[in-house]
Amino acid sequence: MGLGSEGGVDGAVAPSEAAQQQQQEGKGKGFRYNSPLMQVVLIGFVCFCCPGMFNALSGMGGGGQVDHDAADDANTALYTTFAVFGLLGGGIYNVLGPRLTLFAGCSTYVLYAGSFLHYNRHHNKPFVVAAGAILGVGAGLLWAGEGAIMTAYPPPGRKGTYIAVFWSIFNMGGVIGGLIPFVLNYHRTSAESVNDGTYIAFMCFMSVGTALALAILPANRVVRDDGSRASAVKYSRVSTELAEIARLFGNWRMLLMLPAAWASNFFYTYQFNNVNGVLFTLRTSGLNNVFYWGAQMLGSAGIGWVLDYSCRSRRKRGFVGILVVATLGTAAWGGGLANQLRYTDGKWDKKLDFKESGGRYAGPFLLYFSYGLLDAMFQSLVYWVIGALADDSHTLSRYSGFYKGVQSAGAAVAWQVDKRKTRLLPQLIVNWSLTTVSYPLLALLVALAVTDESPKAGADLESDDKISKPSAPPLQLH
């Protein structure tokens, strides 16, 4: 794929004719491959297969290994490179376009799952760590592209709904991925590593996601129902992108988002390794992941409705969303504190099993379920705020890349905190504090930077942009 080759100019077209042509393109009845919804659904399935399965793998605690040491080091390497390429990913996406960027990113997930298959047989820790570092590069590319698609393609007034659609499909990957170790390791109640078939199944799903990435359309070929295109900006240059990425560190909007970005993956280490990995048997931790990622589907749908439909004013909807997430977050982490006080030394005498532990299983299970609910609502809220800051995919890819870069830096620190056997109560307190600090700063960002433009106004503004630079006709899938 050449730079800028995915959307050429058809020639000089009168503005009125171009406007009429774009309106006709967006009025097709039924299924339309170049619609924003279809593209968001497609990137949802890409993430279903790749990071969705990765989440299921990580959610077992230690990547499915009894000894968490290799997984902790691999995740530290992963999130260190992810922090760098998360920041650079938006610029790379703007230069290469979606297909090549997403394909390169997805392919690294297959290698990572394969490294654990190799580790199961040969205990080659350096290979797992190297695969983690390579995955960090790929994940930075994938998530920058995903963020641009999810926030720039939808119409302005329905971004919360589209985020919920994406998040639900993506987390269905975690649900299916959680069923894989649950089924394949059902009769293994003792503390063992998962079998080879578990990793092979993950690799198959990830390979499908890598192929699906090639079906994503560039922004200038995506047409909304009103005829406006998702973006009319041509592919950028490397020097331009590097300069724009550097400016993000002085952008007050991004600075207000720093605590939320840092917190948004920081808690995974605590939840996966020190709640699900410590309290439950192997098969039960797999079952818990089914419900953890299922809770994310419910959480994203709920907060998506709040952010799109709760009030007429977009700014007020943002405030309501922050209040809802803050309330749930306080309740969830408060419950987590009560649970953590039962095993402050990090040791749990008898692991809980969904069939054998009876009522003792219910409380910790509901806590883990609520953590999944909160994760989806918190991250969907942040993505909605990012999407409300701009409309073009170039800017939003950089904003999303900045968010993922900072998020990954926090996660890299978190995995090393766990490796150093830090006491669990301080880990919980830090996680709770980080999310709590985020809420007033997000509210300030909404107050200062989110406007109350109507969806039609945003669409009209973009439509004017597209009229001056018409591009290739929409692609229909027959």
| Sequence of secondary-structure elements | HHHHHHHHHHHHHHHH
> What is the CATH architecture annotation?
Up-down Bundle
Segments where pLDDT lies below 50 for 5+ residues?
Answer: 1-16, 455-478
CATH top level class name: Mainly Alpha
Q: Supply the number of helical segments.
A: 16
Rounded to an integer in angstroms, the radius of gyration calculated over CA atoms is 22 Å
CATH superfamily: MFS general substrate transporter like domains
Shape by Cα distribution: globular
The number of E-state strands comes to 0
Report the sheet-strand fraction: under 5%
Mean pLDDT: 83
CATH topology label:
Growth Hormone, Chain: A
How far the N terminus sits from the C terminus, by CA atoms, comes to 23 Å
Helix content: over 70%
Region (Disordered): 1-28, 456-478
Biased composition (Gly residues): 1-10
Transmembrane segments: 37-57, 77-95, 102-121, 127-149, 161-184, 199-219, 252-270, 290-307, 319-338, 365-390, 429-450
Subcellular location: Membrane
Task: Explain what this protein looks like in three dimensions.
With 478 residues, the protein is mainly α. The chain has one domain: Growth Hormone, Chain: A, CATH 1.20.1250. The protein contains 16 helices and no strands. The chain has helices at 15-25, 36-49, 51-59, 69-96, 98-122, 125-152, 159-184, 196-212, 238-247, 252-279, 282-309, 314-340, 362-389, 393-419, 424-449, 455-468. Helix 2 runs parallel beside helix 3, helix 5 runs antiparallel to helix 8 and helix 10 runs antiparallel to helix 15 (424-449). The longest helix is centred in the first third of the chain and has 28 residues, at 69-96. The protein is globular, with a radius of gyration of 22 Å. Mean pLDDT is 83; it is low at 1-16 and 455-478. Residues 1-28, 456-478 are annotated as: Disordered. It is a multi-pass membrane protein.
